[in-house]
Design a protein that fits this description.
It is a single chain. The protein is mostly beta strands. The N and C termini lie far apart (40 Å). The chain is built from no helices and ten strands. The radius of gyration is 13 Å and the shape is globular.
């Protein structure tokens, strides 16, 4: 059974930073493309970042325009974790953040940006 467990969500002031983590199990993590998706209050799902596997794309990353230059994604294949480093956060980054392999989803972690 595939399990994805996100953590790291918090209440942060605008301009601050936080790091989200996603622990994966039950899948061939090192060969899996991993994604972060968010859902802001009252809005639909928004893809924000993806990271390729090391073997199939050299762990290359891509980002939505809304987070390009502020967020970074990384992976630890030895521990089966994917991370989302969020810098210069703004109120519009407030959302529930999910990690997914495209088929399986975690329960999400709440990020709130407010002063």
């Amino acid at each position: 059974e595939v399990q994805l467990v996100e953590s790291g969500g918090d209440l942060v002031q605008p301009g601050g930073s936080l790091r989200l983590s996603c622990a994966a199990s039950g899948l061939s993590f090192s060969t899996t493309v991993m994604l972060w998706v968010r859902q802001a209050p009252g809005k639909g799902l928004e893809w924000i970042s993806a990271i390729n596997s090391v073997h199939n794309g050299g762990a290359s990353a891509s980002f939505a325009d809304s987070v390009e230059g502020r967020f970074a994604i990384s992976r630890d294949d030895a521990e089966s974790f994917v991370y989302l480093q969020m810098d210069s956060v703004a109120p519009e980054d407030t959302a529930v953040y999910y990690c997914t392999d495209g088929l399986n989803w975690g329960q999400g972690t709440q990020v709130t940006i407010s002063s």
